[in-house]
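ARCHIVE RECORD
Type: protein–small molecule complex
Small molecule: 2-acetamido-2-deoxy-beta-D-glucopyranose
Source of inputs: curated submission
Record status: active
Notes field left blank by submitter.
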Amino acid sequence: MAGKVLSLLPPLLLAAAGLAGLLLLCVPTRDVREPPAFKYGIVLDAGSSHTSMFIYKWPADKENNTGIVGQHSSCDVRGGGISSYADNPSGAGQSLVECLDQALRDVPRERHVGTPLYLGATAGMRLLNLSSPEASAKVLAAVTRTLTQYPFDFRGARILSGQDEGVFGWVTANYLLENFIKYGWTGQWLQPRKGTLGAMDLGGASTQITFEMAGPAEDPDNEVQLQLYGQQYRIYTHSFLCYGRDQVLQRLQASALQTHSFHPCWPRGYSKQVLLQAVYESPCTRDQRPHTFNSSDRVTLSGGSDPALCRGLVSRLFNSSSCPFSRCSFNGIFQPPVAGDFIAFSAFFYTVDFLRTVMGLPVATLQQLESAVVTVCNQTWTELQARAPGAGAHLPNYCAGAMFVQQLLSRGYHFDERAFSRLTFQKKAGDTAVGWALGYMLNLTNLIPADPPGLLKGINFGSWVVVLLLFAAILLAAVALLLRQARPAKSPSAV
Ligand SMILES: *[C@@H]1O[C@H](CO)[C@@H](O)[C@H](O)[C@H]1NC(C)=O
Ligand SMILES: *[C@@H]1O[C@H](CO)[C@@H](O)[C@H](O)[C@H]1NC(C)=O
Ligand SMILES: *[C@@H]1O[C@H](CO)[C@@H](O)[C@H](O)[C@H]1NC(C)=O
Ligand SMILES: *[C@@H]1O[C@H](CO)[C@@H](O)[C@H](O)[C@H]1NC(C)=O
Ligand SMILES: *[C@@H]1O[C@H](CO)[C@@H](O)[C@H](O)[C@H]1NC(C)=O
Ligand SMILES: *[C@@H]1O[C@H](CO)[C@@H](O)[C@H](O)[C@H]1NC(C)=O
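STRUCTURE (tokenized, with ligand):
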């Protein structure tokens, strides 16, 4: 009896080995090393209306994988954008202190020294640099003084071009959605050529549209070529200065003062004392400025709740009278037809989200968006306040903002119903805000290599199959042996 059990032992061991091998191969492996060391990077997004700080983090050992860098935390700087400190530059630096102190706490102390810190300023500072280059230089010098007082690896404060802003927003969106490269379940890098996502950004002072195009751009100013993970991308991008939300509101106020003595986009029953200096100080309203005006004068402007007149006022922002190329968006700017999926973030998202969630209006089609805009613009101040309690200081401006978004998409960029159905309004992908900041950091830290990632570390699919078959063969052999040894013993008693 003992001899029989002993003779069964080798094939049983063999079977166990085969089974264990198969299980090890098929069960997904998990790293049992200690938690990976993280690296951090900080970007200050100095927009025209406010500054946001984003802290990003990624596992140090997986630096070049896509989708690995995510948002660790963020902070909204109190007060206006840095460009609003033109008369008090040191205040611009001081305004950042609270968020930078938060960064000292959010990033582990031992990582402070190696953490890159960038400040990128956008259209608000582009405008200030246009109207007063000295003032913009002073503001940048002041924020630089503050940022260098921190232990982080400060890599400079600069003004991004509109082109950079558009391209980095596009890079961020497509990086987060893993449209460049994907780590497949077989352990191989895949190039998911399902196409990239177009990106639309609406800031306070400018708006950007960026998407991949098939042919060359007729205007080289609108074309950027990128090589990411070994793939070549031909990108169309344009940034419209003075077409950000806040500047559009200023321009509409200026033309309301010029043409009507009331504001057709504001709700009836609402009125406001408008300081002429505030309306006309921006380079964006320079053309509308009267020859003589008393800059300390205030004019009372009342709302009209007039959707048709408001549409007329907004549509004058888009000049389609001439196009030096085969096709244009507006103002004589080349643009190929919009194609593929699009994501619209920042103020695009906030505007449409207001229509959807606060007003409870559907905006799934262009036509629904149009009638939602008319509904909002037709509300009196009392109705609007009742429908959107707690919507804050922006409430009187939602009609103008929504009218502008709708006109920009249809009249400006020529979205039709089909193209619109492929557009989503979204502010985040996972936990990470979609905007230019992440793409900017990825580029400046070389976290997106131009070349394809090196060969995979684990075993590749071919050898995996060979080893799998080997273990299966061992298991089969063991079972055959077992059967042969068990049968002669059992058969006599069975008969
Ligand atoms: C990431 O890519 C860069 C350039 O391709 C390379 O120098 C670096 O070593 C890579 N990092 C890792 C962790 O693979
Ligand atoms: C301000 O504008 C000028 C002219 O376009 C440009 O050369 C300069 O680099 C800008 N300043 C900054 C800080 O970007
Ligand atoms: C501008 O208006 C203020 C008061 O509104 C007045 O005191 C001042 O004299 C005016 N200046 C000019 C140049 O008219
Ligand atoms: C539109 O642009 C054309 C050519 O650039 C210009 O002549 C015309 O005055 C503009 N129209 C308006 C309403 O701004
Ligand atoms: C605006 O609202 C009034 C009622 O408050 C309604 O009679 C009118 O038809 C509406 N106009 C539009 C364009 O929706
Ligand atoms: C990214 O950075 C490299 C330098 O590291 C630069 O040459 C390239 O133009 C940047 N890409 C974009 C889109 O600005």
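CURATOR ANNOTATION: The chain has 16 helices and 17 strands.
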